[in-house]
Design goal:
58 residues, mainly alpha, globular
Length: 58
Amino acid sequence: MSGASTPCIKVCVIDPVSKLCEGCGRTLAEIAQWGRLSEAERLAVMAVLPERLADRRA
């Protein structure tokens, strides 16, 4: 069974400075909206997460 795409790695901690989840890189707004997004919208968000996390860690 295949569910909706998600970047969640179950490390759900919001960084107080960047306001991003330390596990997946999403904002609180993106996390809250995730279930209402289309698969295309989810994939678009997921495409920017690696760069977002790399920028935060730099």
